[in-house]
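From the methods appendix. Each design record in this collection lists the discretized structure first, followed by the designed amino acid sequence. Records were kept in a plain field format so they could be parsed without special tools. The example shown here is representative of the layout used throughout.

RECORD:
C-ALPHA CELLS (425 positions):
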C-alpha cells in the first residue's frame, strides 16, 4: 500500500493520471512473472529402499529437493500413510502392489519430478509343515506320501540326512521314494528355499525289515580308487547279496549292478566329487552299514598333465620354476628325474610353483636334461614336450695352466699364479 502510494505521487508530479494508473499494474505483472515469485519444481535424488514386499508396508524414504507438501505415487497408487515430510526428504509407507517394478513419482506446486523406480518382490513362501506320512512304516524304495502345507515344486525331502527322490507335488502333498536306510525310525523333513519343516512325531518314518531278512555286509572292494568322472568297474565282496536294490557310493547310486553270488557283485561307479566315500549295498531286506578302510572307495581327479615349465633351463644350482598344465589337484610332489622339488605351492588346478633341485654333476659348458612329473592322487603326469627341464653347466674356466715347454736356464716357470726359479745345470 505504501509503495503504490509513493508511485502514484511520483507519477502525478511528472504529469498525468494515466501514468499513475499504469505504473502499479506493470509492477504487479512483473512480480507475477518473476522467478522470485514462483516455486521451484521438486526433484528426486534417491528412493531407499528400492525394493519392498508386494503386500505393502515398506517404509520408503524419498530424498531430493522442494518436497514439502509433495504428493507421492507408487505406480499411480497413493501410499498408505506419510511418516515424515520435509523439503529435502519425505518418508511414506508403500501400498500393496503386484510383484514387479513401478515408477515412484512426486508432484508438488503443480509440477512433477522425474520419477525413480521401486520393485515389489513376492512375499517369501511359508515354511513347509508336515502333518502326516502315508505310510509311516515301510522299506527302502517304497513310495511315501507326505501330507501338509507350504510345499513347492522346488521342495527337497530328506529321510535323516539322505535325500529322497520326489515323484509328485502339490502344495499340500508330496510323493517320494524312501531312500536306502538302515532299519529303525528316521525323521522326514521338507526343505524349501526359505525354511524347513519342524521335526515332530508325525514326521517320523520307520524302516522295517521283512521276517527272515539278513542285513548285507560289505567286506572289501577292488579297486578302491577311480576317476571322479565315474565309469570304474568295482568288485564288491561280502555277504547277504540277494534281492539287491542298489549299490551306493556316498549315497550316489552306482550303475549296471551284476550280482555274481550272495557274496560277490560288480558295479560301475557314478560321477562323484573327489574324496573318500562309503560303499553300501541295499537289498529288499536292509542297507549295509558303512564299513572300514577296505570297503571305502576314493574318487580322484584325472591324471595331471604338464604343458610348460618356465624357465625350462637353470644353472646347476636349480631355482624357482612355474609349471602350467591340468588337474593339479591333491598334488603330492613334483619330481625332477629322481629328485623331488621343494617349496611346492599349488596356485590353481592349472598352475603350481616349485623349486628345482640342484644338480652338481653337470660338467663345464654342458647340459643335463630330465623329465618333470607331477604326482597327484589321480596319478603321475606323462612325459611330454613341455615337461623337459635342463640344468646348464658353467662356462669353461679361464685360469692359467702349467706351461708344457721345458724351462730354460735363468727363466721363471709359471704355474697357477706361482713362480719358481729354474737355474742352469
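DESIGN:
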Amino acid at each position: 500500500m505504501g509503495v503504490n502510494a509513493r508511485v502514484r505521487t511520483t507519477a502525478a508530479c511528472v504529469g498525468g493520471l494515466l501514468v499513475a494508473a499504469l505504473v502499479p499494474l506493470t509492477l504487479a505483472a512483473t512480480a507475477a512473472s518473476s522467478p522470485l515469485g514462483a516455486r521451484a519444481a521438486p526433484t528426486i535424488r534417491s528412493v531407499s529402499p528400492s525394493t519392498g514386499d508386494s503386500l505393502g508396508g515398506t517404509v520408503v524414504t524419498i530424498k531430493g529437493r522442494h518436497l514439502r507438501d509433495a504428493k507421492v505415487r507408487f505406480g499411480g497408487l497413493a501410499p498408505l500413510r506419510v511418516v515424515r515430510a520435509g523439503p529435502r526428504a519425505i518418508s511414506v509407507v508403500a501400498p500393496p502392489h503386484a510383484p514387479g517394478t513401478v515408477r515412484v513419482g512426486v508432484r508438488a506446486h503443480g509440477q512433477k519430478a522425474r520419477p525413480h523406480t521401486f520393485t515389489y518382490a513376492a512375499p517369501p513362501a511359508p515354511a513347509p509343515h508336515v502333518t502326516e506320512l502315508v505310510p509311516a512304516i515301510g522299506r527302502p524304495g517304497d513310495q511315501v506320501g507326505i501330507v501338509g502345507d507350504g510345499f513347492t515344486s522346488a521342495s527337497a525331502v530328506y529321510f535323516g540326512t539322505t535325500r529322497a527322490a520326489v515323484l509328485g507335488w502339490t502344495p499340500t502333498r508330496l510323493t517320494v521314494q524312501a531312500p536306502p536306510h538302515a532299519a529303525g525310525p528316521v525323521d522326514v523333513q521338507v526343505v524349501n528355499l526359505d525354511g524347513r519343516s519342524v521335526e515332530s512325531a508325525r514326521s517320523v518314518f520307520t524302516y522295517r525289515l521283512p521276517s527272515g531278512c539278513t542285513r548285507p555286509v560289505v567286506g572289501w572292494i577292488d579297486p578302491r580308487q577311480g576317476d571322479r568322472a565315474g565309469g570304474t568297474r568295482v568288485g564288491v565282496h561280502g555277504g547277504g547279496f540277494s534281492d539287491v536294490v542298489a549299490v551306493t557310493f556316498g549315497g550316489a547310486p552306482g550303475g549296471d549292478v551284476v550280482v555274481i553270488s550272495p557274496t560277490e557283485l560288480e558295479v560301475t561307479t557314478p560321477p562323484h566329487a573327489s574324496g573318500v566315500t562309503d560303499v553300501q549295498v541295499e537289498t529288499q531286506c536292509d542297507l549295509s552299514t558303512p564299513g572300514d578302510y577296505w570297503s571305502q572307495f576314493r574318487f580322484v581327479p584325472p591324471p595331471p598333465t604338464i604343458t610348460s615349465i618356465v624357465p625350462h633351463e637353470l644353472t646347476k644350482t636349480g631355482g624357482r620354476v612355474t609349471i602350467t598344465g591340468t588337474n593339479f589337484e591333491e598334488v603330492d610332489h613334483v619330481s625332477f628325474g629322481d629328485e623331488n622339488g621343494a617349496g611346492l605351492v599349488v596356485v590353481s588346478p592349472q598352475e603350481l610353483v616349485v623349486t628345482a633341485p640342484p644338480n652338481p654333476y653337470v660338467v663345464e659348458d654342458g647340459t643335463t636334461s630330465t623329465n618333470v612329473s607331477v604326482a597327484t592322487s589321480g596319478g603321475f603326469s606323462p612325459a611330454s614336450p613341455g615337461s623337459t627341464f635342463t640344468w646348464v653347466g658353467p662356462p669353461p674356466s679361464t685360469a692359467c695352466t702349467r706351461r708344457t715347454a721345458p724351462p730354460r736356464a735363468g727363466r721363471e716357470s709359471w704355474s697357477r699364479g706361482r713362480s719358481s726359479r729354474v737355474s742352469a745345470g
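APPENDIX NOTE: Confidence is low (pLDDT under 50) at residues 1-37, 411-425.
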